[in-house]
Design brief:
Helices cover 33% and strands 21% of the residues. By secondary structure, the chain is an alpha/beta fold. The strands form 5 sheets. A 10-stranded mixed beta sheet has the order 9-7-5-2-10-1-11-15-19-20, with helices on both faces. Strands 14, 16, 17 and 18 form a 4-stranded mixed beta sheet that branches. Strands 3-4 form a two-stranded antiparallel ribbon. α3 crosses α4 and α3 runs parallel beside α6. The protein binds guanosine-5'-diphosphate, 6-O-phosphoryl inosine monophosphate and magnesium ion (MG).
């Protein structure tokens, strides 16, 4: 058994797609377990760049089975567009399997997502407007439509019509907006159903059999720990569980089957969307990181907010996810800074707190306590081993290991597959 979880240890966009692609080259099965096409994972292979949203980043390994698990909210329109885009780039997508239990995103979910955001005014969450929250709301409310319903011609139309009618009441009466056309939606979704059918199966069996057969199973996280509905910076979070525990539910395996949890960690911190951000740099240094790291969203194109590395967050993520190691990403972006800061605690009301607080009112008042380290000038994008890195970069990595208490097994020094330093193997042979 070699079951590896990849999770984001910050606010998403840590570089998960790159590491997943790297590790997928050896994987037999790659699994998405939650979220939807709110995710944006960039994978760079040679001169080609792929932007993946709903489709697992393992898709570029033609020998791996790519599972979209039951915990995912599935947008058929987005999925088919992505498939078409990948096929046009010569990628074989026949390896995809979709859970019959996954919930389906409908146009009314996206409409309500947008209208709810508008209605929040200043208290806006800053969602991706992909209908993620409203689809999970329906799931929990027990009115959702699942892939197995979409596949069943006898029940689909009635279920969809009832939902569209109910949602049109919300859209027109609460938000005073225009109703959606039921016939149009139903006809479009019947078309999608035909194209999706060959991919649909009981994915829990695919994943379980692979684990039992001692195959390499890569559980591919989307979003990040601080976007978790329970552990994130609520309410500025997504509506699912992007943490390691989310995979037990979202892909249907026992928690005891998870062996290794790799926390994908940016060498600094970014977030898109709203909410307090203790180490945020709203100055030239922040701009410098944004430009050097090309910190603009893969899904929405929004500029990402940037700041120094916050180890209060990473330690929290290590605890909540049971992280066994770190993959440190975008270290090359920090080249050229004279001094680097690492946040080791928060000052709140004259005291230093070390644990990430639940209350955003507390978080908003926290001031970072920094440890200052020397920067390095050298371009590190061609470094192939830890020893190739400048001494200051080595100290930066070792400081993280010491303060978080787990090893940094992977160091990424550029977006390409080849720009990856593996200090210790992730899969157990
Ligand atoms: P994800 O959502 O966690 O998969 O991350 P995104 O793909 O949204 O954002 C990470 C960005 O950083 C992408 O544009 C990657 O191509 C890029 N990237 C990943 N690793 C590195 C790295 O080590 N150095 C640099 N410069 N870019 C990287
Ligand atoms: P990847 O997988 C960064 C954020 C949104 C918003 C909040 C809620 O690329 O790391 P939602 O549309 O999910 O209801 O939005 O969550 N968000 C992400 N931020 N990376 C992501 O995914 C995200 N997925 C959602 O910006 O603040
Ligand atoms: Mg992303």
């Amino acid at each position: 058994m070699s079951t590896v979880v990849i999770v984001g240890s910050q606010w998403g966009d840590e570089g998960k797609g790159k590491v997943i692609d790297y590790l997928a080259s050896e994987a037999d099965v790659v699994v998405r377990g939650q979220g939807g096409n709110n995710a944006g994972h960039t994978v760079v292979v040679g001169d080609k760049k792929y932007a993946l949203h709903l489709i697992p980043s393992g898709i570029l390994n033609k020998d791996a089975v790519n599972v979209i698990g039951n915990g995912v909210v599935f947008d058929p329109e987005g999925f088919l567009k992505e498939i078409d885009g990948l096929e046009a780039q010569g990628v074989d997508t026949s390896t995809i399997r979709i859970s019959e239990r996954a919930h389906v995103v409908f146009p009314y979910h996206k409409t309500i997502d947008r209208l709810a955001e508008e209605a929040r005014g200043k208290a806006k969450i800053g969602t991706t407007v992909k209908g993620i929250g409203p689809t999970y709301m329906d799931k929990v409310e027990r009115s959702g439509i699942r892939i197995c319903d979409l596949m069943n011609e006898e029940v689909f139309e009635d279920k969809a019509r009832a939902q569209i009618e109910a949602k049109n009441l919300i859209i027109t009466k609460i938000y005073e907006s225009d109703p959606l056309d039921a016939d149009e939606i139903i006809s479009a979704y019947k078309g999608y159903a035909k194209r999706i059918k060959p991919f649909v199966t009981d994915t829990t069996v695919v994943v379980y059999d692979a684990v039992k057969a001692d195959k390499k199973v890569l559980l591919e996280g989307a979003q990040g720990t601080l976007l978790d509905i329970d552990f994130g910076t609520y309410p500025y979070v997504t509506s699912s569980h992007p943490i390691s525990g989310g995979f037990a539910i979202g892909s249907g395996i026992g928690p005891n089957m998870i062996e290794e949890v790799v926390g994908i960690t940016k060498a600094y911190t970014t977030r898109v969307g709203k909410g307090p951000f203790v180490t945020e740099l709203e100055n030239e240094t922040g701009d410098q990181i944004r430009v050097a790291g090309n910190e603009f969203g893969t899904t929405t194109g929004r500029p990402r907010r940037c700041g120094w590395l916050d180890l209060v967050i990473v330690k929290f993520a290590a605890r909540i996810n049971g992280m066994t190691c770190i993959s440190l990403m975008l270290l090359d972006v920090l080249s050229g800074f004279e001094k680097l800061q690492i946040c080791t605690g928060y000052e709140y009301k004259g005291e230093v707190i070390e644990h990430f607080p639940a209350d955003l009112n507390v978080l908003a008042k926290c001031k970072p306590v920094y440890t200052e380290l020397e920067g390095w000038k050298e371009d590190i994008t061609n470094c192939e081993s830890f020893d190739d890195l400048p001494k200051e970069a080595q100290v930066y990595i070792e400081t993280i290991e010491k303060l978080v208490g787990i090893p940094v097994k992977i160091v990424s020094v550029g977006p390409k597959r080849s720009q990856t330093i593996i200090r210790e193997r992730i899969y157990r042979d």
